[in-house]
User: What shape does this take?
Amino acid sequence: MSHTHTVKRYSGLMDWLTTVDHKKIGILYLLAGGFFFLVGGLEALLIRVQLWKPLNDFVGADTYNELITMHGTTMIFLAAMPLLFALMNAVIPLQIGARDVAFPFLNSLGFWTFFFGGVLLNISWFTGGAPDAGWTSYVPLAGTTYSANHGVDYYVLGLQIAGIGTLIGGINFLATIINMRAPGMTFMRMPMFTWAIFITSALILFAFPALTVGLVALMFDRIFSANFFNPSGGGNMVLWEHIFWIFGHPEVYILILPAFGIISEVISTFSRKRLFGYSSMVFATMLIGFLGFMVWAHHMFTTGLGPIANALFSIATMLIAVPTGIKIFNWIFTMWGGSIKFTSANLFAVGFIPTFVMGGVTGVMLAAAPADFQYHDSYFVVAHFHYVIVGGLVFGIFAGLHYWWPKMFGRILNETLGKWTFWTFFIGFHMTFFVQHFLGLMGMPRRIWTYLDGLGFNEMNLISTIGAVLMGVGTILFLLNAISASFKPKNAGNDPWEDGRTLEWTIPSPAPEYNFKQTPLVRGYDAFWKEKMDGHKGMTPAEPIGPIHMPSPSILPFFMSIGLFIAGFGFMYARNWGHIGPLNTGYTVAVIGLLITLGCMALRSIKDDHGFHIEVHELDDKGGKA
Amino acid sequence: MSAHSHVDGHLPHEPEKATLEGRNKILGFWLFLGGETVLFGTLFSVYLALRDQVLDGKPAHELFSLPLTALATLLLLTSSLTSVFAVHALHKLDNKALIKWLVVTVLLGIAFLILEIYEFYHYVHEGHGFTTSAFSSSFYTLVGFHGAHVAFGIVWISMIIRQLSKKGLTVVTAPKVYVAGMYWHFIDVVWVFIFTVVYLMGKVV
Assistant: This one.
C-alpha cells in the first residue's frame, strides 16, 4: 500500500517558503508576529517619548496620528493575532494527537497572506504617509475628503489581505479540532487551550467577514467613489461604526480567549493539579464567545443611538463579567492547595490574574452607559484596553512562549532571564497604564499629540513614559533569552517541566515532522497525566506502526499572496499611475496580480497532491516514540 | 486510509466521504459557507440601511423590471436542481451523467450571468451608475458580489468537468464535485434572498 512518490524536499530558505508543516508555520508566525510586535512597540515608545513632557515637539501632530494608528493596527492585526496563531500552530495538533492540521496547504496560505498584508500596510511609512485615521478608521475622517493621501488605502488593502489569512486560519483550526482528534479525545476531554482556540476560531469565522465587507465598502468609497459612508451621496457614517464594531468587539474576544486557554494550561501544570471546574471553564468560554457578538454598540454609547439601545448593550456587556468571573475563580481554585512552582511561565500566568481583573473592573465601569459619557475618548479608555490586551493577552503570550518554547525549539529558555523579563515587564506595564486611569478621569483626551503645562498631567505622563521604557527593557531581555537559547544544545526532554498533563509532552521536543509515530489512545481528560497516575510511562498507541502519509511542500501559497500584494498596489495607485495606451496602468497591475493568485489556485486544483510516505525504517531513525 | 487505495478499484458508496481529506474538505467548506453567510448578511444590512438614499437617481420601483429578474431566478433555481442531479449521479458513480448535469448547470449559470450583465448595462443607461447614490453603490456591491460568486462558480465547475473527463470519478475528484455542489446551492439561496429583499421589496412603494 505504500506508494513511493518521489517528492522534492527543499532545504534552507526554500524549505521555509514552501513548508506546509504546522510546526514550521508556527515558527514563521512567531518570527513575523515578533517582528511586527517590535515595530508596534517602537511606535508605542515614540508615542510615549512625545508625551513625556507638556508641549513636547519630538514628533509633529501628523506623525503622531500616524503613530497611534499604526501602533494600534500593527499590534492587534500583525502582532497579537499572529503570535496567537504561532502558539495555535505549534501546539493544537499536538494537543489533540493529530499528525497535522486539516488543511496544511491552506495553513501556509494563511501565513503568507497575513505576512504580505502586514508588509503592504507598513510600506505606507515609506511612500508618503502611513494611515492616520486611528485603528478604528472612522469615517468621514478616513474618507478621501480628510485623508487625501494613500495612507488609509494601505490600511484598507493591507488589512483586507491579512484578514484573508486570519479567516483561512480560523476555518482550518475549526476543521482540525472537529475532525482530527485522536481516538478517545472526546470534546469534553480536550485541553482547555484547545477549547479556547476552537471557540476563538468560531469567532474569527463569524466576525471577520463583517470586516471584509466594511473594508470593501471603504475601499469602494475611496477608490471607486462609491457613497457608502459619504453623506452628500446619501451614505451613512454611523454604518461604518456598526460594521467595524460588529467585527471589532468579537475581535477583542478573539484576542483574549486564547490567552485564557494558555493561562489555564500553565496554571494547572505548575500547580500540579487538574484545572478546577473544567466543564464550567468550557461553558464560560462559550458564553463569552456568544455574548461577544451581542455587545458591539457599547463602543458607540456616545454616538446617539438612544437610551433603549444604550441600556440593552450596557446590560449585555455587564453580563460578560459573570462567565469571566467564573474563570478567574477557577484559576484561583486551581492554585489553591496545589504545589505551585513559580517558573517564568507561571509568573506571567499568575501576574495575569490580578491584572486582568483590573481591566475587567474598568470594563464594567465603561459598560455603564451614563458613566461612559465621562470616560469616552479619554485616557481611562486607553488604560482599560491596555489592561485587558497587554495585561491579558500579552502576559498570556509570554506565559505560553516560556511554557511551550522547549516543545517548539527543543531548548528551555533561561529561567533567571525569564524572571527578569517578567518583573521588568510586569512593573513597567503597571507603571505605564495604572496612572492613565487617573489621567483619563482628570480629563486628558486620548489621541492628542500634546498637552499644556499646569493641567496636572505632567508627573503621571512622565511615570507612564518611564514604565513604557521598562516594558521595552523586558522585551529586550526576552529577545536576549531567545537568542542565547538558540546557541545551546537541543537537550529538552519530552516532558521538560516534568509535570506535563497533555499530549504534546508525550513526544520529543521539538516534535518530529509526523508528530506521533503512533496515534495515541486517549483515556481521559489530561490524557498524559492520567497515564502517569496509572503508572504508565507513555500513551497506549491506537494503531500499529506503519508508513505515515505526509502532504508535499508547495510554493503556490507564497505566489498567491504575492499576487494579492501586487493587486493591492495596482488598486491603490490606479488614480496616479496614468495610462499605458488605452489601459489604466494601476488596474492593469491589479488584474495581473489577481491573475497570479487565481492562476495558482487553478494550478492547485488541477495538479493532484499525492503527498509522500515516511516509511517505517525512517521512523526508527528519528527515534520518535508514541 | 490512504488517498490512493480506491483510485483503481471500485469506488465506495459515497466516494466524497471515503477519505479523511474528503471529509475535511466537506466540513471545511460548510464552515466557509458559514463565513460567507456573515459576508452576505452584512452586505444585505448595508443595502437595507442605504436603499432609500436614491438622491437624483431613479428609485427602486421605477428601475427594476420583475419579469427580467424572475427569469434570472428561474434560470438559477433550475441550475440548482441540475446540480442536485449531478450529485445524484455522483452517488450512482455514473461519471457520464455527472459530467452532463454539471455542463447543464454551468450553461444555466452563464445564461443567468448574461441576463445580469444586460440588467446592469440597462440600469447604467437609465442613469443608475455605481456612484449615483448610496442606493446604487450598495445595490451594485450586493448584487455584484453575488454575480462574482456565480462567475467564480462557473469557472470552478468547468475546471472540475475537465478533471472528471480526464481523471474520471475518483476519491480525489468526488469531494470537489460535492463541495462545488454545496457552493452552487449556497449562491442560489443568496439569490433567493436578493430576489426577495432587493427586487420584490423594491417594488413595494
